[in-house]
TrEMBL record:
Protein family (similarity comment): Belongs to the glycosyl hydrolase 1 family.
Keyword Hydrolase appears in the UniProt entry: yes
This protein's name: 6-phospho-beta-glucosidase
Keywords: Glycosidase, Hydrolase
Residue positions of the active site: E375
InterPro entries (UniProt xref): GH, GH_1_N_CS, Glyco_hydro_1, Glyco_hydro_1_AS
Record flagged with keyword Hydrolase: yes
Species, as recorded: Bacillus changyiensis
Highest taxon above the source species: Bacteria
Length: 476
């Protein structure tokens, strides 16, 4: 048996998102998106949960997405640095409101379409494959204000039109697509994941799962459209993943862990298998949820499943049947019982490389579809030396161990298309809006208050990752 881990053509690279990197939030006809209404500070968390004070940015608040790291104006410089590292792929997203400023526009915004043409051309100049997310945590604010966002069935046709526009425009430039970023975040950060704003007394659970159904149907319609426009396109889904461990061998803990995983798998079960699983139907019934469907929905879901499973992995999780008895910690928004066997990052996220291998095996065993690791990385405070260097050995150590475990998963028989680590260049943190929570191989000179020159400089990890790619994962 050939035990060589990484095949020729393995897609090494990095991942960014429009709302965390581009800035230029109203440039050349772009409309407001939901992320443009997320300030830093205490209000950010309340808004992410669906409590929106205004449909316009408020005076006196700092909105980090408005400038971000100005990838919109500096993409050529940044892509040149990615190319210097040897990237084979860059995962990035398209801002819906750059293409359709209101979301329901009759015609797309040509300036927005041209911007992404330029970005894709620049990537292809260096033989870097674009891996594109259609909706990465941004909904045009007009769709939220006028229609109630994904609570409204009309969003399905607006999204289908948006996706179809992208597929037609970029059919010769983009092969790999994903419909929704971390689609399961809808349940945990409903404003971020689906632009949901809740009225006082509204049944939030009903609203979330109805919105989820609309996104799942929209995803299926996008898969259908993409395959019709270019049968060679590979269209995937994307999950915020991470194995949930039972705190003990107590069957109640084991069952709680299974249920916690199902909370996320629910979305991918539908996108990859084409139907609602039995446990979801039971959940709807026992929680008195009525999911309104149209006659053709179940057939659409069944006939237009995804080609691959994209997933992010930052940390594993731990749970118990009796949560009151345990301390908890953070981890990519998912609360977790504290695992005594694992170290934690500066933000309280568990560091669990072996969990990466376990998660990859779990997903592949469940779906039997190719996987694509589209986010993995360590958020940390990087402090430059007097001569401006960042010696981020802690990041190298984290990534080295995770890539090694990915290698082991592939030896287990797991099919993985590529690995795009999160934030190859420092960008705005999605959860906190901070700049000091850095992931990149490239340092961006900017602080949490928006001060700085935006100057780019290479960290120690830059050369390390360059070596990893050049050796196709052999030299870690």
């Amino acid at each position: 048996m050939d035990m060589m881990t990484f095949p020729k053509g393995f897609l090494w690279g990095g991942a960014i998102a429009a709302n965390q990197a581009e800035g230029a939030y109203l440039a050349n006809g772009k409309g407001l998106t939901t992320v443009d209404l997320l300030p830093t500070g205490k209000k950010r968390w309340e808004i992410m949960q669906g409590q929106l004070p205004s449909y316009e940015p408020l005076e006196g608040e700092f909105y980090p997405s408005h400038e971000a790291i100005e990838f919109y104006h500096q993409y050529k410089e940044d892509i040149a640095l990615f190319a210097e590292m040897g990237f084979k792929a860059l995962r990035l997203s398209i801002s819906w409101a750059r293409i359709f400023p209101n979301g329901d526009d009759v015609e797309p915004n040509e300036a927005g379409l041209q911007f992404y043409d330029n970005v894709f051309d620049e990537l292809l100049k260096y033989d870097i494959e674009p891996v594109v997310t259609i909706a990465h945590f941004d909904v045009p604010v007009h769709l939220v204000k006028k229609y109630g966002s994904w609570k409204n069935r009309k969003l399905v046709s607006f999204f289908e039109n948006y996706a179809t526009t992208l597929f037609k425009r970029y059919k010769g430039k983009v092969k790999y697509w994903m419909t929704f970023n971390e689609i399961n975040m809808l349940l945990h950060l409903p404003f971020v994941g689906a632009g949901l704003v809740f009225e006082e007394g509204e049944d939030q659970k009903q609203a979330k799962y109805q919105a989820a159904h609309h996104q799942l149907v929209a995803s299926a319609l996008a898969v259908k459209a993409g395959h019709e426009i270019n049968p060679k396109m590979k269209i995937g889904c994307m999950l915020a993943a991470g194995q949930t461990y039972p705190y003990s061998c107590n069957p109640d803990d084991v069952f709680a862990a299974m249920e916690k995983d199902r909370e996320s798998f629910f979305f991918i079960d539908v996108q990859a298998r084409g139907e609602y699983p039995g446990y979801a139907k039971r959940f709807f019934k026992e929680n008195h949820l009525t999911i309104v469907m149209e006659d053709q929905d179940q057939q659409l879901l069944k006939q237009h499943t995804v080609d691959y499973i994209g997933f992010s992995y930052y940390a594993s999780r731990t749970t118990s049947g009796d949560l009151d008895q345990h301390k908890t910690t953070a981890g990519n928004v998912f609360g977790s019982v504290e695992n005594p066997y694992l170290e934690k990052s500066e933000w309280g996220w568990t560091i669990d490389p072996k969990g990466f291998r376990i998660t990859a095996n779990q997903l592949y065993d469940r779906y039997q579809k190719p996987l694509f690791v589209v986010e993995n990385g360590l958020g940390a405070v990087d402090i430059p030396t007097e001569d401006g260097k960042v010696n981020d050995d802690y990041r190298i150590d984290y990534l080295r161990k995770h890539v090694a475990e990915m290698s082991e998963a592939m030896k287990d028989g797991v099919e993985i298309l590529g690995y795009t680590s999160w934030g190859p260049i420092d960008l705005v943190s999605a959860s906190t809006g901070e700049m000091k929570k850095r992931y990149g191989y490239i340092y961006v000179e900017k602080d949490n208050e928006g001060n700085g020159t935006l100057k780019r400089s290479k960290k120690k990890s830059f050369d390390w990752y360059k070596q990893v790619i050049a050796s196709n994962g052999e030299k870690l």
